[in-house]
Input
Amino acid sequence: MLQFIELIAVLVIAIASAIEARRRNMDLIGAYVIAFIVALGGGTLRDMLLNRHPLYWIENPSFASLIFAVALISSIMMRIYPQLPQERFVIVMDAIALGLFSASGTEHALTLNLAPFIAIVMGVITATFGGVLRDILFNQVPTIFMQHTQLYATCAFMGGLAYWWARPDHPDVALATLASIVVAAGLRLLAMRFDWRLPF
Amino acid sequence: MLQFIELIAVLVIAIASAIEARRRNMDLIGAYVIAFIVALGGGTLRDMLLNRHPLYWIENPSFASLIFAVALISSIMMRIYPQLPQERFVIVMDAIALGLFSASGTEHALTLNLAPFIAIVMGVITATFGGVLRDILFNQVPTIFMQHTQLYATCAFMGGLAYWWARPDHPDVALATLASIVVAAGLRLLAMRFDWRLPF
Amino acid sequence: MLQFIELIAVLVIAIASAIEARRRNMDLIGAYVIAFIVALGGGTLRDMLLNRHPLYWIENPSFASLIFAVALISSIMMRIYPQLPQERFVIVMDAIALGLFSASGTEHALTLNLAPFIAIVMGVITATFGGVLRDILFNQVPTIFMQHTQLYATCAFMGGLAYWWARPDHPDVALATLASIVVAAGLRLLAMRFDWRLPF
Output
């Protein structure tokens, strides 16, 4: 069930990123690289920092082909049907992915017996650095670092914290992951609704 | 013979990159870093993704000194003789390097028994990500992702595909590498001549 | 003693970077990431290039929490007391850190029996790439590559050279490190005072 949600979330984010790349006059290659990096860049950076090899998209090559198909179909669809995809659906999926990725990143680091703070930071990197790398490639200051941005990395941090707190009681990671999703996605959607930002 | 062509291609690209860096008001350090990254950045990223260590320029330190000499000489030459180097020669060498690097990147990944699609993607990363990193340091959106750009990453992909297709029949990699160069460089030069771009 | 100076230098640089991030309208998350990357990014890149794991801030998680505290306190302080910190003190500490980081990066590479030129380049990467990554996140061309910049990477290189030259006679690294600091910081402060730049 969680894996199914993760797959849907990754696909939705990849589609939204590919469309965003096309809007900025990138071609199919650009859309593919952007979709790939937003979907898999955070986890790749985490694994390289933690020296976990082989990288999951190298071991499971279907991810790379799947995202290529997504970029291709998004590019063709945009020509035929140039309206936005369901904005609200993308926002909810992105919020869910924030909690999911934060949980999986935290889990990977805890498995290596790292300190909780570092483990949660790894969760935050997993959940947010794909977007940071995308913004670098779009030649702009990463949005999530700016004052005008509603809570984002903070939600991932809270999700990771919830995961770490819920984990010992639930050796099956599914419940702890659910806790992370509820906390991170809940906080994120509330922050967007009520324009919550960091006070400093 | 192939190694000789590779060396010439790397040197020509390093010279052209160092001159480009100087044109953008960088000093010798900037020219060195840009020349280094364009020449060796793609292969370095590939090796870090594949966890192949030591990196080749760490094991063979002469590359780093050679590129420093190139950056230094290019910088001095530009003062004495500020015209462009032979534009056409640079373009042909860059096209040849596209095929060569794509072949070598694909080969490294196939040696590790990776899936063909991932192997060819590794070839494309080897051939193109030096330029992507250069564009990030030049503070611009990577050219190869833009719609107005003539086929580039696509040529590297086709070169890698040709390599993968030709490889089983030619255990000596020279012939498969030649196939990659002919396909990638041929397609690249045709794309530049006839302004071929991705249709979407 | 050296470790104490290093800690002070890292803290001062982290504070200055966090304040700079706040000036550019980043929030606490942005200030934290910038402070973290400026303080630890160069060494992290060096260790990933050299395949040295676990990374030191993963093994010693107190660094990550300490820099978070620094970013938090700097952010709060800036509200209450918006003047600059002692500009001159920051400049001197940054110059000292240039020599210290260059020495430690060179030492790590020499321990692995790398060629001296590569070892000193690793020292320069350690000392300067935090700032390069910061400039990429600030969406500007890295300052240290520009012609208008007073000697910076060059000072780190000279510091690394001094370290390499002094090392065999002083198995205790403290004296060689001191040589690196004197050379790098001295050259840097002179370059700033007399506006020394690379001639090309």
Notes: The mean pLDDT of chain B is 91. Chain B has one domain: 2-194. The longest helix of chain B spans residues 87-111.
